[in-house]
Amino acid sequence: MFKNLGESGSTFQVIIFQSSLIKIKIMEIIIADKSHSIYAHSICETISDAAQVRGTGIAKRKPEYIISKMENGNAVIALDGTTFAGFCYIEKWNHGKFVANSGLIVHPDYRGQGLAKQIKKIIFEHSRAKFPEAKVFSITTGLAVMKLNSDLGYKPVTFSELTTDQSFWDGCQTCKNYDVLQRTQQTMCMCTGMLFDPNSKETKEHKKIKEKVFKRLKTIKQTLFLKNNKK
Predict the structure, then answer these.
(1) Measuring CA to CA, which of 34, 140, 179, 189 is 20 to 30 A from 79?
(2) Using CA atoms, how far apart are residues 132 and 142, in angstroms rounded to an integer?
(3) H/E element holding 79?
(4) In this predicted structure, what is the pLDDT of residue 6?
(5) How far apart are the first and last CA of the chain?
(6) CA–CA separation, 67 vs 59, rounded Å?
């Protein structure tokens, strides 16, 4: 269980209650900078391992890419003291008209404690502060991430409503489902596209979508593409 202790500069302090262990500890979720580059390799390994375990699409990234995000202030890292616990970064496309919160990952030792939700919330707020007029989007196969996005005001959309910047879609080449994206001419994939539009009336009204809707959508996609693979 998490309780937010507030913000101090670029640092968000969160307290973890572990009642079964009668243990309380403080964790920091920080706007990353150059000093956190020492965690880049661990972050990349955690992302790679998660992709193998899940068996679904997670685009891999090199340490140099992660470091560049930290140096530009476009990343959030969660630390338990000096131990890496979680990470997420910002990407911008179409000259800042679109931004994406990508690479959301929590180390296995810290999963199941609500940390991903806290990281997602902070990187989203950081994105909105740095790029207030930008549309924030996400593509994901993870039901948990879809639920987090919905809670923040994202809506499911077709890929045609996302960025047209080809370099974004090229970044999907390391995903195991990239062939699906190619076969559909980038109109559909195993991922679900989600969008937060700050100027949308629908976004301002913000009605959360039930998790069973995302489960149904994911099942339909899996069935569709499995049938196509058998042909």
Answers:
(1) 140
(2) 26
(3) strand 75-80
(4) 46
(5) 47
(6) 16
In angstroms, rounded to a whole number, what is the distance separating the alpha carbons of residues 116 and 13? 14
Helix (H, G, I), strand (E, B) or coil at 39: helix
Token representation of residue 157: 């959309």
Q: Domains along the chain?
A: 2-230 (3.40.630.30)
Task: Give residue 143's pLDDT.
Answer: 84
* Segment 209-230, tens digit of pLDDT: 666 666 666 665 566 555 555 5
pLDDT grade for 190, boundaries at 50, 70 and 90: confident
209 alpha-carbon distance from chain centroid: 18
Other CB atoms within a 10 A radius of the CB of residue 75 amount to: 26
What is the token pair recorded at 223? 């069935």
Rounded-to-integer distance, Cα 121 and Cα 123, Å: 6
State yes or no: pLDDT of 5 exceeds 50: no
Tell me the C-alpha distance between 44 and 143, whole Å. 22
Contact 57, 177 (CB under 8 A): yes
